[in-house]
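Meet today's protein:

…
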Amino acid sequence: MTTLVTGTDTLTRDALTVLQPGFVGTTAPDWLLRRIGEGLSSVGLFGRNIVAPDQLAALTARLRAERDDVLVAIDEEGGDVTRLEVKEGSSFPGNYALGSVDDVELTRAVARELGRRLAECGVDLNWAPSADVNSNADNPVIGVRSFGADPDLVARHTVAYVDGLQSVGVAACTKHFPGHGDTNVDSHHALPRIDVDLATLHVRELVPFRAAIAAGSKAVMSAHILLSALDPDRPATLSPQILTGLLRQELGFEGLIVTDGMEMQAISSTYGIERGSVLAIAAGADAICVGGGLADEDTVLRLRDALVTAVRTGELPEERLADAAARVRALAAWTQAHRVRGAGSGPGAASQEGTAPGADVGLVAARRALRITPGRSPYMSVTGAPYVASFTPVANFAVGDETPWGIAAELARLLPGTETGSYGAEDPVDAVLAAAGERRVVAVVRDAHRHPWMSGALDALLVARPDTVVVEMGLNESEPRGALHIATHGAARVCGRAAAEVIAGR
């Protein structure tokens, strides 16, 4: 490519400052370190960058050897969306589980412990919590990532989550503004549209964001959604009416506005990432998140050059870019101050579940989140090794398919010899019965209400085997069925462990 700028002038440094790119690998590549030296102020981490707490701490230390105030961001919601434990599943239940318990002190404690683990590893900006009101039960991308469908419940738990994270020096990034809950399209794949009036928006979607702003959330992440009542032409991430008019001026938010991933199809397929990034900064965004899919130096240089060119041609006011960069640096200064005050507690054994004060709060929360509905006959605990049939939908992009889910591994620890199989829409129930043989069947589903094939498979299985235990690990919208129905309110590893304990009578 042709590089349009050098790496030394103020304009170039500001353009680099507003980028939050990712990279590939578990160590920092040379190009990333070089760009940090030239002004890049943030780095985003994903599951591909993390294998262990010690490795992550070494990685963040290497980044800060280049510049000690670099922001290290991560998409660590806990629950179904985890990067710290991408290969094992999270030690913390997600928002839906916490909302179902509805104990704000528990939510605060979970967020504090999650934040403590992030801080120990040198991560100081978390793209969480999701403050979306999941008013549409068929939402394909939010679902259990939301605290629930009631705006006031979502608001109080969003505040508790923000408080918990920021009490240990990890900046919260409340998302996805102005609310992604009433969508039936995943913005990773296309542009969702929400056609509600302004009155509905204010009494539903905006309630948690108002509360988060009042609680001092350091950052807010925009959504790639079209809200026709506010801007019929541009998605929120690119809309001056939404980012500047609503978020800045009406709601009074003074912190960092971060975009959702710019390579998501809702932006990239319509505007392209370069044009989209320029429009986002012009609309009022301060930081461009990119790197979930595009994670190379060329992407950083393309976006840098696009911003510099837009300033030089007059499309983007230089003072708007300078203001955005200043907000990034202000947040970096806040996190750096907290990091210095909290220095001295490095990573290691205390990062592992159960070894530090409060470290088992995730399991405590997962147990409390269970909703157990007995069948018509008294439940007999499973004592022999069962057969676990997992009816597996396609994972949404935010969750990914790297992270295991279900209860088979946890049941196998309690009941050695447990066997399992995964089934999709094309698999007949006869295949489950043949694989199970005489074993007790445990059927595990995820959002059964959204998948007619899954509900049909459950019905057929229960006709053949009425003593089947059903575990719902998504939204608990379907009628309970089976000898025992367990709703975990999420598919995190710790949720599977809590359900396995009940099944085995432990």
In short: The radius of gyration is 23 Å. The first helix runs from residue 10 to 17.
